[in-house]
């Protein structure tokens, strides 16, 4: 009775979820954890340890959006930085520069800016053998 195995009561904590509904306008920066879904307007920067979802009616206007993952169906006017995936869906529009691990732009989406892929901004260098092969081929075509 008292010497038996102890049962652990594990309580699952639901993921934090923030909804900015259509018709809502937030002026200022947002720092949060979990998932944030934007159907309204955010005029400011977002720093999210989690996922940012911009719905078709959603608009973000700021300097930056930093998150683990970003999904855009609405309109974003900001630079985006994510180590994970950035998805711009069919009706989505992004005006800003991107640094992302993965960039997925669906046909019909609009992206105005530049992108830097991968987790690092360093440029990869070619192995010496590949450099030599390229130089040899370059010489063949230069005549």
State the main characteristics:
143 residues, mainly beta, eleven-stranded parallel β-sheet, 1 helix, 10% helix
Main pleated sheet: 11 strands, parallel
Q: What is the oligomeric state here?
A: single chain
DSSP helix count? 1
Mean pLDDT: 85
Estimate nothing, just give the exact number of structural domains.
1
- SS-derived structural category: mainly beta
Q: Helix fraction?
A: under 10%
- The percentage of residues in β strands lies in over 45%
* Outline: elongated
The first-to-last residue Cα distance is 91 Å
- Helix and strand pattern: EEEEEEEEEEEH
Record field, number of beta strands: 11
Please provide a written account of the structure.
10% of the residues lie in helices and 51% in strands. The protein is mostly beta strands and 143 residues long. Strands 1, 2, 3, 4, 5, 6, 7, 8, 9, 10 and 11 form an eleven-stranded parallel sheet that branches. It has one helix and eleven strands; from the N terminus they run E-E-E-E-E-E-E-E-E-E-E-H. It has one domain.
SSE inventory with pairings:
Blueprint: E1 17-20, E2 25-27, E3 30-38, E4 41-43, E5 46-54, E6 59-72, E7 75-88, E8 93-95, E9 98-105, E10 110-112, E11 115-117, H1 128-141
Parallel strand pairs: 1-3, 2-4, 3-5, 4-6, 5-6, 6-7, 7-8, 7-9, 8-10, 9-11
Short description:
The chain is mainly beta and 143 residues long. The chain has one domain (17-117). It contains 1 helix and 11 strands, in the order E-E-E-E-E-E-E-E-E-E-E-H.
């Amino acid at each position: 009775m008292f010497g038996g195995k102890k049962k652990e009561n594990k309580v699952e904590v639901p993921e934090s979820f923030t909804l900015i509904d259509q018709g809502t306008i937030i002026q200022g920066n947002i720092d949060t954890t979990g998932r944030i879904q934007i159907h309204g307007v955010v005029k400011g920067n977002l720093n999210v340890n989690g996922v940012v979802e911009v719905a078709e009616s959603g608009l973000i206007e700021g300097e930056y959006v930093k998150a683990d993952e970003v999904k855009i169906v609405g309109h974003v006017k900001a630079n985006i930085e994510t180590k994970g995936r950035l998805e711009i869906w069919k009706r989505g529009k992004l005006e800003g520069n991107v640094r992302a691990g993965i960039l997925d732009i669906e046909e019909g989406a609009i992206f105005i800016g530049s992108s830097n892929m991968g987790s690092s901004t360093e440029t990869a260098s070619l192995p010496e053998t590949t450099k030599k092969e390229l130089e040899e081929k370059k010489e063949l075509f230069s005549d």
